[in-house]
Amino acid sequence: MPAAEASSSTALRLADLVLVLHAGVVAFVVGGLLLVWVGNGLELRGLNRFVNRLGFRVAHLLAIAVVVAESWLGIACPLTSLEYALRARARAGVAAPDAGEGFIASLLSRLLYYDLPAWVFTLGYSLFGLLVVATWRRFPPRRGRSAVPALDLRQDREPPSA
Questions:
Q1: pLDDT tens readout for residues 20-30
Q2: Is residue 12 a contact partner of residue 99, using CB atoms and an 8 Å limit?
Q3: Which of 7, 65, 67, 107: CA 20 to 30 A from 123?
Q4: Exposed, middle or buried, 117 (CB in 10 Å: 0-12/13-18/19+)?
Q5: Predicted TM-score (pTM) of this structure
Q6: CB pairs under 8 A, 24+ apart, for 70-74?
């Protein structure tokens, strides 16, 4: 395999990896909010404990805050920019015009990228960010190891004395 094709292949694989990472970030932001609602709304013990941990909630809030800030400041998403640059490098290294995306990458691209005016994204991200803040107020995170006290099922404990 000539060096140009190997470089193109590597760039394409890296672009696919960045796209999967980007999809993971989106899944964390969107899915994280859904999990907070489900865990608290249905009072699912294990899920409630997980989604109300301060570390999870801070990471979730920071993730959407970065997205909102980027959109308000007119900054392109660094993951999108990196992916596009890698795909451009992959296409430049080979003669074939289809050095773009495989099936999974194409599917993820259709889920992530839309051709809409920037203000639509800024509005959507801002409203979503406000929803995350409102959810924080409705279901505040808990400090410590767990949000819900663990049920002690050990048999070796003596019953409390009266």
A1: 999 999 999 99
A2: yes
A3: 107
A4: exposed
A5: 0.76
A6: 71/118, 71/121, 71/122, 71/125, 71/126, 72/122, 72/126, 74/118
